Structures are given as C-alpha cells and as structure tokens.
Amino acid sequence: MTTRRNVASRAVLALAGLVGLGVANDRGPRVARDPGPRRVVLYGRNWHTSTGRPGELPTEGDRITVRGDLLGAEGGDVVGEFVAAGFAIGGGSHPAQAERLELHTFKLRDGTIIGSGTAGQLDGAFAILGGTGKYAGARGTYVARQSHHDFGGDGSAEFVLTLTA
C-alpha cells in the first residue's frame, strides 16, 4: 500500500541522489594537482664513445654508441647508467663540428627515461619520449652537454631535464 509518507520519502531520496551526482560531477575525483614542471639535473663521468674506428672522429653516416655513469650531484654517488645510440649527420675535423642524431636511455634505480634529439657543438636539445617505473609516462625536454673522452674531452656530461608529466 502506497502512502503519502512513502511517496514523499522516495521523492526526497531520489532528489538527494540527483544532488549527489551533480556534486560528484562538479568536483570529480580528488586527484593530486600537477605541481608543474620538475627540474632534474644529472651529471656524467667516464663518458666513452665508440664509432667503430678508434681514434677517429665520426663522419656522416657513422654509427655511434655512448656509455657512462650517471651521478645525482657533481662528483657525487653513481645513481645509474647512461647509454646512447646515434648517427653522425654531419662531420668535421673537430668534435664541435660533428652533429649527431641520438637516442638516449637514462637507466636509474627506480626506472628509465628515454630521450631523443640532435647534438652538435658538444651540446644538444632533446625531447623526453617516455620512461618506465617511476618515470612511466614521463614527458618534457632536456639539454645535454657531453664532453666525450674519445673525442678529446674530459669524459664528463651534464643533463638538465624538465619533466612535465
């Protein structure tokens, strides 16, 4: 048997449900706000490059591999390893004249960061393509300054990363 009280109770309950849905849609789930870009600086040491021709600078079309230790602070403890593969897209009689297309992998304790770009004049601008572990879905850019031991440098590197995701 339907009474006025039952009808009124159901109407109030339905209205409360609709209001609740409206509030949930307005506010959405509580997700941590994006704190904005995060800057990370990594340093490198023992920077070695292989071109397949020891002692010779790369010429256009040469494949290049790079390997070195990553440090969290200049002169600090090792926090990971850097590996790269690339191709010379220009050449010259001095390393500063050689331009390269490079694919970088930063192998860190809590995941990897993958980047790609071009380098020349001993530095370059790169895009962060993604990552794994803590860096899954990473995006952003970075500037790399590399002083390749095998090209007459001191074997050091510096990476200034701006992570946006």
Number of strands: 8
Average pLDDT reading: 80
CATH superfamily of the largest domain, by name, is: Allene oxide cyclase-like
User: How many structural domains are formed by the residues?
Assistant: 2
Structure description:
It is a single chain. This protein is mainly beta and 165 residues long. It has 2 domains: 31 residues; 126 residues, Allene oxide cyclase-like (AOC barrel-like), CATH 2.40.480.10. Helices cover 15% and strands 47% of the residues. The chain is built from 1 helix and 8 strands. An 8-stranded antiparallel β-barrel has the order 1-2-3-4-5-6-7-8. A hairpin with a 6-residue loop joins strand 2 and strand 3. It is globular. About 9% of the residues have low confidence.
Write the SSE topology:
Elements: H1 4-27, E1 38-50, E2 63-71, E3 78-88, E4 100-108, E5 111-120, E6 123-131, E7 140-147, E8 156-163
Give keywords:
165 residues, mainly beta, AOC barrel-like, 2 domains, 8-stranded antiparallel barrel, 1 helix, 15% helix, 47% strand
Quick gist of this model?
The chain contains 1 helix and 8 strands, in the order αββββββββ. The chain has 165 residues and is mainly β. It has an 8-stranded antiparallel barrel with strand order 1-2-3-4-5-6-7-8.
